[in-house]
Amino acid sequence: xxxxxxxxxxxxxxxxxxxxxxxxxxxxxxxxxxxxxxxxxxxxxxxxxxxxxxxxxxxxxxxxxxxxxxxxxxxxxxxxxxxxxxxxxxxxxxxxxxxxxxxxxxxxxxxxxxxxxxxxxxxxxxxxxxxxxxxxxxxxxxxxxxxxxxxxxxxxxxxxxxxxxxxxxxxxxxxxxxxxxxxxxxxxxxxxxxxxxxxxxxxxxxxxxxxxxxxxxxxxxxxxxxxxxxxxxxxxxxxxxxxxxxxx
Length: 248
Ligand code: PEP
What we know:
This protein is α/β, with parallel strands linked by helices. It has helices at 18-30, 46-53, 78-84, 94-99, 104-116, 129-133, 137-148, 176-194, 196-200, 211-218, 235-243, and strands at residues 4-8, 36-40, 58-61, 88-91, 120-125, 158-162, 202-206, 225-228.
């Protein structure tokens, strides 16, 4: 499966920031990327971004409600994201789990909502720092896969993002050996749970991926791309990360 480099803008970006997407589009046209490229701007910008990028790369949401419509003030459904031009949606990001109390069952329902709307779900998992120090990281990630990835997941409609919570936005990352070991463990867990689909599903690494560490992380076995937060806000940084996938 072709790698995927995905940008998560989080709660950053006004209309003026769309110029970064224009720069990204121009650069990708000049030098076709060695991977699939996705940007998940705030939902308010997806429709404008869709008109601007015209399929040069994919767009996604950062969360969705599990229901298609209804009395859920302030929420956004997967169908609305699709209608605005998204083809992916991130679900179960640790900031959603921490700040909005989302649990594995909620995340699984959101993944199913994504599929219902025809979106690919990027399901985030990852241990906290305390869980890693306690030696529980493998068990926590396996539990999150069992609870957050619905049984019918396919490689075509689901991507897993391994994001150690302590590495997000901190500048800290696991060692390369730790990333490789965890991705191997996630692959085994997915294959056990989903069979063939689990063997082909992309597993992204996320957590302080930057231009200077992207090459070594992205070329590890079982790392099928990256989910990038802060370094996706500037087209130049995001492009350097994408370039990390090109054989040197
Ligand atoms: C993220 O929020 O998904 C993320 C990986 O953030 P950062 O790259 O800024 O650590």
